[in-house]
Design a protein that fits this description.
The complex is a heterodimer. By secondary structure, chain A is an all-beta fold. Chain A is built from no helices and 11 strands. Classes of the chains: A mainly beta, B mainly beta.
């Protein structure tokens, strides 16, 4: 079936370092959404990308959608403790259902 | 305040004892869905509903039932819970399933079946 592969599963960074998570689909996506889940919390919608090659920014977060609409990435510049959590991508195909990546957990080293 | 409300937040039960997890949204959303979250597996969809009286199986529907008799409520029913249903459950809703509207999640229900 349709799958979205998300890597890495975990990323340990020092505060102030950058963080990136990647999502890949074997088939072309209609759009992709990104969510953040804080420890002990629920997923919260961050952004949606629809257009081929789209790049969107939210302060220190940069979201990209590949030209072929098969991959996407989230990059956080200069991580802060408030960025801790798990980041999920969710891809949508023509059947409208969202298929979720397994998530990347951002851990700030003490 | 616009929200998705799940109850209970925590539930410990025994194998075979029927239980219901309630979900209610006050945003007049057409689409509602149930997910389970397990370590390393992300979010897996159990059932979803595109509108009142319309429900469909997600990726992992076995052992679960749902109903959508009214727009705001979408309860998840476990007729005979088993230990492999121990998980964190989330209810979510969105304006409609066919468009690009984001999902709004409830706070989650942590279920333990012994």
């Amino acid at each position: 079936g349709q799958q979205v592969m998300q890597i890495p599963q975990y990323q340990h960074v020092q505060e102030g370092e950058d963080f990136t998570t990647y999502c890949n689909s074997s088939t072309t996506l209609s759009n992709i959404q990104w969510y953040k889940q804080r420890p002990g919390g629920h997923p919260v919608f961050l952004i949606q990308l629809v257009k081929s090659g789209e790049v969107k920014k939210q302060k220190r977060l940069t979201f990209q959608f590949g030209e072929a609409k098969k991959n996407s990435s989230l990059h956080i510049t200069a991580t802060q403790t408030t960025d801790v959590g798990t980041y999920f991508c969710a891809g949508r195909w023509s059947n409208y259902q969202l298929i979720w990546g397994a998530g990347t957990k951002l851990i700030i080293k003490p | 305040e616009a929200q998705v409300t799940q109850n209970p937040r925590y539930l410990i039960t025994v194998t075979g004892k029927k239980l219901t997890v309630t979900c209610s949204q006050n945003m007049n959303h057409e689409y509602m869905s149930w997910y389970r979250q397990d370590p390393g597996l992300g979010l897996r969809q159990i059932y979803y509903s595109m509108n009142v009286e319309v429900t469909d199986k997600g990726d992992v529907p076995e052992g679960y039932k749902v109903s959508r008799k009214e727009k705001r409520n979408f309860p998840l029913i476990l007729e005979s819970p088993s230990p492999n249903q121990t998980s964190l459950y989330f209810c979510a809703s969105s304006l409609a399933g066919q468009n690009n509207s984001p999902l709004h999640f409830g706070n989650g229900t942590r279920l333990t079946v012994t």
